[in-house]
Amino acid sequence: MPVEDKSVIEENVAKIPVGSIQAANGHAGSISFRSKSTMEMNGSNGHQTSHDSTPSMPWFGMDIGGTLTKLVYFEPTDLSEAEEESEVETIKNIRRYLKSNSAYGETGHRDAHLQMEKLRVGNRTGTLHFIRFPTSEMPQFLELSKSKGMATLASTICATGGGAYKFEEDFQREVNLTLHKFDELDCLIHGIEYIEDNNMDRECYYFLNPRNEETCEKVTFDFSDPYPFLVVNIGSGVSILAAYGPDNYRRVSGTSLGGGTFLGLSCLLTGCKTFEEAIELAAKGNNENVDKLVRDIYGGDYDRFGLSGDIVASSFGHMNSAEKRAKVSREDLACATLITITNNIGSIARMVAANEKIEKVLFVGNFLRVNPISMKLLSHAMDFWSGGQLKAIFLEHEGYFGAVGCMLELMRTGDAMASS
User: Fold this and answer.
1) How do residues 35-64 score in pLDDT, each as one tens digit?
2) Dihedral angle computed from the Cα positions of residues 54, 58, 64 and 70, in that order, rounded to the nearest 10 degrees
3) 158 by DSSP, 3-state: which?
4) CA dihedral 178, 182, 187, 188 (to 10 degrees)
5) What SS3 class is residue 66?
6) Which InterPro entries does the annotation name (predicted)?
7) Could you tell me if 299 and 315 are in contact, meaning their C-beta atoms sit under 8 angstroms apart?
8) Per-residue DSSP letter, 84
9) pLDDT digits (tens, 9 = 90+) for 303-326
10) Beta 217-220 vs 178-181: how paired, if at all?
């Protein structure tokens, strides 16, 4: 149900968990990275596409993850007077609702700071909105779809992620909508490419001096010459993709230890209930009370292998001591859990990058939302262990690329879906 009260909206902003389900199996495929779908989105394919050849409004893309559902919605702002008069009331209601609320239901949220204005999509100009809600709240979303009349405007919604399969029958039964499913890794790559192309000067960045709070600096990264690069997509689990050129990408690795693991372990160990709460605890904790460091084992640095004394030698290594367990705090446990998961992801990414001989590594996914601790850890680890050869690159739109790529597919195949 909608939340209108501003205080309730602000209170609920901190209730959204993190993550999206990743592909559990290996995947190989090919794309055109500066792709046909992107050109069609931009109307830059050498000819102007008429309004009539594009799908009917509204235009949505949906990525239903294991923990979080991401939704992008395109709002046209170039409507003529005649178009505004003929526009159905349901679309007007949807637009009014999206623009008048920051929270949706008890736990949903529109990331207004990420919205992209004056964007060219399907030969229309408008604003792209970014919305997220816990996948566990899908019944409430379906009820909202009913109440706002979304189901009366279309028979098909483009969706990706594991939930596109899991909730397919629910969409059909509750709101008489068919989910047109697209591969989540294809959507991820297409979405990254499109957003980076249209947010070129602001989308990609890295951290300079990530371990020094006083001198740490967020720096824009020039991604205009991308190939080759890795994408480390951190949701509930982790998938790692390698893109070698305009028509060549594949899934090269992954791990089941991701954002869902961090949240689950934090809930078990600290009693917290949300991702935001777990991150807040971690920010106040000291992992040295939980982890064994190199200096705990060697009494200092391990010079022979260039290991500094403050590097983690054994995650949770102190917890076999009853005395240590008695003194450890919830904050310490959350901090150690976050560092354990982050170090594992960074280690796998570094080894894959070395194996594939790739120096640009993009980290995306909702695990990184409100999580500067992990971003700075990854930045330092990639730089330190590669001798300065690898750089951890982050993107402003974090976990929304799959949903954006899904909307790209709607623009490319909308007419075909309608006729089928």
Assistant:
1) 433 444 444 333 333 344 578 778 889 999
2) 110
3) strand
4) 100
5) coil
6) ATPase_NBD (IPR043129), Type_II_PanK (IPR004567)
7) no
8) H
9) 666 666 678 999 999 999 999 999
10) unpaired
Peptide bond into 58 cis (omega under 30): yes
Q: What is the greatest pairwise CA distance in the chain?
A: 77
Among 77, 79, 83, smallest CA distance to 98 is for 77
Residue 373 CB burial class (10 angstroms; 0-12, 13-18, ≥19):
middle
| Span 123-158, pLDDT tens digits | 889 999 999 998 988 998 888 777 777 667 766 789
Evaluate whether 238 touches 254 at the Cβ level (below 8 Å). yes
Residue 176 — left, alpha, or beta (φ > 0 → left; ψ -120 to 50 → alpha)? left
What is the DSSP annotation of 7-50?
Answer: HHHHHHGGG--------SS--EE---SS-HHHHHHHT-SSSPPP
Q: Which helix (H) or strand (E) holds 238?
A: strand 238-245
Taking the C-alpha atoms of residue 145 and residue 106, their distance in angstroms, rounded to an integer, is 15
pLDDT at 2 over 50: no
Give rounded-to-5 percent helix, strand, coil for the chain: 45, 25, 30
Choose the catalytic residue: 137, 184, 196, 277: 184
Residue 305 is encoded by which pair of tokens? Answer: 């292998």
Pair type for strands 124-134 and 68-76: antiparallel
For the stretch 345-370, pLDDT in tens is 999 999 999 999 999 999 999 999 88
Is 331 among the residues known to form the active site? no
> Which is nearest to 362 in space by CA: 263, 159, 219, 226?
226
Over range 185-204, report the average pLDDT.
Answer: 90
Provide the whole-model pTM.
Answer: 0.81
Whether the pLDDT of residue 409 is over 60: the answer is yes
